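SAMPLE LOG
Freezer: B-3
Tube label: C17
Construct: single chain, 147 aa
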Amino acid sequence: MTPRTKRIVGKSLVVTTIAVVATFGLSFTARLALQMPIDWLSWVECTFIPILIGMPVSAYIFTQSETIQDTCNKLEKSHAALTEAHDRLSFVTSHDPMTGLLSRATDLCQLHHAGEWIHGTDGQKPRRRGMRHTSSGRSGSLLFHQR
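STRUCTURE (predicted):
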């Protein structure tokens, strides 16, 4: 028997035992309160019905729970591996392989975005006062001013 199966059977036995004890308690309390006799059929009902219903249902529920937990664990590992691969790919595509420094394309892209942020051409208000505008109405670049 695998450890997973042992866990499922153990949990199911605990749940079934609790169901049998609860059934005995409720059934016998009700029978005594109503002054009904406790016969052999009462014992059979209180024993076998919870076992026949509780054991398979709880085993099914605990099996599904274990399957979901295993799937979550695999998904977390896959996500971690994918994140690591993405980080490596981002580094490789944005850095020069010989020097390890940012590539020229990445530098230019970051400068372009910085210029948009400073001059407000990214759809937001300008962050700096005294912006110079060209005659065409466009704002100048961070490094170069268009005339």
